Amino acid sequence: MSDLIEPVIGVIGGSGLYDIDGLEDRQWRRIESPWGEPSDEVLTGRLDGVRCVFLPRHGRGHRVPPSELNYRANIDVLKRAGVTEVLSISAVGSLNGDLPPGHFVVVDQFIDRSFARKKSFFETGLVAHVSMAHPVCARLGDAAEAALRDLQIPHKRGGTYLVMEGPQFSTKAESELYRAWGCDVIGMTNMPEAKLAREAELCYATVAMVTDFDCWHPDHDHVTVDAVIKVMQANADKAKALVKAVIPALGKPRGPCPQGCDRALEMALITPPEKRDPALVAKLDAVAGRVLNRA
Ligand SMILES: CSC[C@H]1O[C@H](OP(=O)(O)O)[C@H](O)[C@@H]1O
Ligand SMILES: Nc1ncnc2[nH]cnc12
């Protein structure tokens, strides 16, 4: 018997990316979650025979702001749809003079400054602490980097994404502070998304598309939605080409994740079985069923 799994690739589309092209058997499907309403239905289909599931992060029509996104429901429905790896696509501001608008960054670290969001699937009744030392899956990063290289899209492998609460953009003092911390890009959405993906034992990586220089750059205008959308529209075809290249590359049957993303809960649960809240355990059926349903 083989231990290989057939990956199902999830894509979370950020600002400007509300659909993906070229899917066979495409179908928008509503998936119920015990964690509430996700941003939208998911788009399921196949690309070169590889199963994939797309979720527009803010919903079609960009209805949901960063602080009101139900990050838990979004990750839960992807897991329920069978997703094993998640590629997150995000618009970001640049905090690094070497990363002008139009550049893509394969993010490898985050600093989470969001504060008004539910950040864990685990609550009173079942406590868990997963490692976030390496918050993205290097295997997914490798695939994204290879696709960006092949497509000749200007990019940087590695970079730190500062997650701000928003929805207002940063003050100049904040922008300077994050630059002094060594951050490369800034956005409002990738946390707690990456933390929840880890709790759900999903491989996760972010490709960030630089749309502006935030507000620190002396030679550039301060960020506006208009400017972000203009750059996103110019880059939408590149983002779609990236998705089209990455999905088949990640879709080959594979063994366990070398980094252990798919086993993140193995050593994380601290509440013993007899003290666990059965209602919470039931809600965690998709996210943590692998470890909770053991005899
Ligand atoms: C429309 S500009 C601000 C908006 O864009 C980014 O969203 P996403 O990560 O979903 O592409 C940023 O985080 C803000 O939510
Ligand atoms: N400058 C910026 N700050 C926060 N989120 C962004 N998304 C795109 N540009 C941004």
UniProtKB/TrEMBL annotation:
GO terms for molecular function: S-methyl-5-thioadenosine phosphorylase activity. The record marks 170, 225 as: Important for substrate specificity. The keyword Hydrolase does not apply. PROSITE patterns: PNP_MTAP_2. It is an enzyme of class 2 (transferase). Keywords: Glycosyltransferase, Purine salvage, Transferase. InterPro entries: MTAP, Nucleoside_phosphorylase_d, Nucleoside_phosphorylase_sf, Purine_phosphorylase-2_CS. Pathway: Amino-acid biosynthesis; L-methionine biosynthesis via salvage pathway; S-methyl-5-thio-alpha-D-ribose 1-phosphate from S-methyl-5'-thioadenosine (phosphorylase route): step 1/1. Residues 9-247 form the Nucleoside phosphorylase domain. Its EC number is 2.4.2.28. It catalyses: S-methyl-5'-thioadenosine + phosphate = 5-(methylsulfanyl)-alpha-D-ribose 1-phosphate + adenine. Substrate binds at residues 188, 212-214. It holds the Pfam family PNP_UDP_1. Phosphate binds at residues 15, 57-58, 90-91, 189. SUPFAM superfamilies: Purine and uridine phosphorylases (SSF53167). Belongs to the PNP/MTAP phosphorylase family. MTAP subfamily. Homohexamer. Dimer of a homotrimer. Catalyzes the reversible phosphorylation of S-methyl-5'-thioadenosine (MTA) to adenine and 5-methylthioribose-1-phosphate. Involved in the breakdown of MTA, a major by-product of polyamine biosynthesis. Responsible for the first step in the methionine salvage pathway after MTA has been generated from S-adenosylmethionine. Has broad substrate specificity with 6-aminopurine nucleosides as preferred substrates. This is S-methyl-5'-thioadenosine phosphorylase. It comes from Roseomonas elaeocarpi. The gene is mtnP.
